[in-house]
Prior knowledge:
Layout: H1 3-17, H2 30-49, H3 53-69, H4 73-89, H5 93-110, H6 113-130, H7 133-145, H8 153-169, H9 173-190, H10 193-209, H11 213-229, H12 233-249, H13 253-270, H14 273-289, H15 293-315
Helix pairs in contact: 1-3, 2-3, 2-4, 3-4, 4-5, 4-6, 5-6, 6-7, 6-8, 7-8, 8-9, 8-10, 9-10, 10-11, 10-12, 11-12, 12-13, 13-14, 14-15
Amino acid sequence: MNKCIIALLLAVFIFSSCSTPPKDKKEQELPGIKNQAAEYTATGNNFFNQAQYNQALEYYRLALRENISIDNEEGIVKSYNDLGKVFAVQRDLDVALEYFNDAYALAQRLERPELLAQSEINIGEVYLRKGSSKEALEQFQSALSRPIDGLDEEKKAILYHNLGQAYKNQNDLTQAETYIKQALEINQKLNNQHEIAGNYYALASVYSLRQQYDQAAEYARTALETDKKVENSKGIAKDLYALGIINEKAGNTKEAYDYYYKAYRVNITLNLRAEVIKTLQHLIETSKQLDLEEERTEYEEILEQLTEPAESTENN
């Protein structure tokens, strides 16, 4: 058992010792404990979807505790994967990978193709985030090669989307488009608006790489409209930024500047410092091209204020 799991179990037991379980806990039937674990997982999912990751982590740990208490190995696999996805979204990729690898090892022992596929999808996503497209592609292709009828449609769509992203990063744009559109088709049937927006965003990137900027902009605008429907602020900021990039590449500097400014405005409200800095850099360049000297000076001053603390820290 690796250090990550030992630490996890220690945290689980410490947490459980601080709470009083029901007196008749030992008398519960197994389905009751499984149901309790499922309820904890569902609550964790709700917090995860609301980007309340610390709360999600607590409930996923509770679910793991319940699953371990009855040796529910299928549930343990799912709990490991849930915990891993929290660390992945928080950019603690090495810890996330440990959880996903442990889920995979247990799924291998259980010989459950759908559990193996889910773990491979998760491991592949970590490699994508690390920029290791080749390794990610290997994981996704392995998941695709399994009899994945046990995977629900939403997870299949995620697999296809991730395959598309991996192929895009390998510059195989034909395969990328094929898989992303497969994901889009499933998500449209499910009416999963968040994922639909992500699919359109990915298609915009594919067409931008092809230098087909009109089609790229159309896909990005569709992503933006979809994200606005569900009030996905982070998605809206990404879509606006993408439209800025596409228009800048196409030589539409004024349109690019307008989109960058809108993205900058949203990122400020979300307190996304890295995204604000990135967008400011484009605003400086496009305002320079448009001879907007007053605006350019203002953006340069803001950028200097944002980057100065980091530079001071490095010098110390």
